[in-house]
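Let's practice the habit of predicting before peeking. Look at the sequence and jot down your guess about where helices and strands might fall. Then scroll down.
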Amino acid sequence: MNEFRLKISSEDFLYLIKTRRVTRQFKKKKVNNEYLELILESAFWTPTGGNQRLNQYIVIQEADTLRKIRAVSPGMLSLPPVLIINCIDTNHSEGEEFFFDEQPLAFIDAGTALENMLLMTQVLGLGACPVMSFNKQSVQKLIGLPQYLVPFLMIMLGEPLKPHLVKPASIDINKFTHWEEYKKE
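Done guessing? Here is the structure:
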């Protein structure tokens, strides 16, 4: 057995995963900066391919900027108190002769960082919703991003308007898992 033990039990961690839901409606309440820093720190600790760390994060809290971004983002169904935009630094990737748009590595890294952020949001009692339906060029222009920082995904977050009442169901993993080889039923 590995000597490294987490402070959270596997049952508690699985419960956290089972009860995480997407929040699309938020209270009009500011999110504590300490919470935002914990969410961003959770993104930093995501393992990345080749330790490239291509992600840069832009935190938007200004209501006028949020409204403008929402106008070019069909995936934003409401106006959250906070929007975190995950950008891929193409200068850094190309300097390493790694072209992010030719390999899925940057997208996998962004997705794993997203999951860390969503789980931390859940731990903090906040709600979050990933957004990929937005006009990247318009968002880039609205927030003054240089050409080499490409917005890839956004996360709306804040205090949920209504609590999520979730009772996790039991599942049989063997309905979607095959051991050693695929076996058609």
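How did you do? The two ends are 36 Å apart (CA to CA).
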